[in-house]
Design brief:
CATH architecture: 3-Layer(aba) Sandwich
Distance between the termini: 26 Å
Radius of gyration: 17 Å
Number of helices: 6
Strand order of the largest sheet: 7-11-10-8-12
Shape: globular
Structural class: alpha/beta
CATH topology: Rossmann fold
Helix content: 25-40%
Strand content: 25-35%
Number of strands: 12
Order of helices and strands: EEEHEEEHEEEHEHEHEH
Largest sheet: 5 strands, mixed, barrel
Length: 257
Amino acid sequence: MPYHAYHLNLVQEMLEGAQLALIPGDPERCSAIAALFGDYRELAFHREFRSILAESGKEKALVVSSGIGGPSLAVAMEELARLGIRCFLRVGTCGAIAPDLNPADLVISEGAVRLDGTSQHFAPLPYPACADTELTHLIVRACRELGFPYRKGITCSSATFYPGQERYDTFTGYVIRDFQGSLEEWKKLGVLNYEMETATLFTVARTFGLRAGALCAVLVNRLASEEPDHISLREAENRVNRTAVYTAGLALRELAL
């Protein structure tokens, strides 16, 4: 009996041999990403997981939303791996904490601080969360060829949006002592940005023996503002989507996927 991915509501034959998946968090961004390939069709939409098969000529890729955070991403990766996906590319957004990053700039994660929690269910905390080197080189190449400004470096993946990223604009206005001053510390250690999935992505992919890369667009630089403006938001999504699809094309041709 063929494997049925319960949470994704997919079976392997629906992927038509696709081995690469682009993973945004937001289900609403899936169709915008898939449309950049040319032809696409929705396969399933169950819970936070929207799955679309995208095609450009003979090249096929899956676009699957993961929802927010490591737990749901790990579910998607587990099921996608069983369906035949061998390469995962996160297409995300983030808050920058490096002073020279601006809204709509792109961040390419080479590694991640494992504040996510989920990754510890796959490997102990001393195990590093590292990107696939070849896929990361292709993301850099895509940014350069498209002419989009980017930085590559370390990302901090938090299990929470508010306290773990030291946000005080909350119901209680309180952040526990472990996270008080943490934003400034990560900044001094050269961390570029906060988000919530990359550490899980890298750890799960490495322990599975699969490829993973992460590309995020900056929505705000948190040293200046917490509120994205609509023009920067649209440009950020345009850049990250276009770069991810360009990277996918390179990967499909050069990584034998």
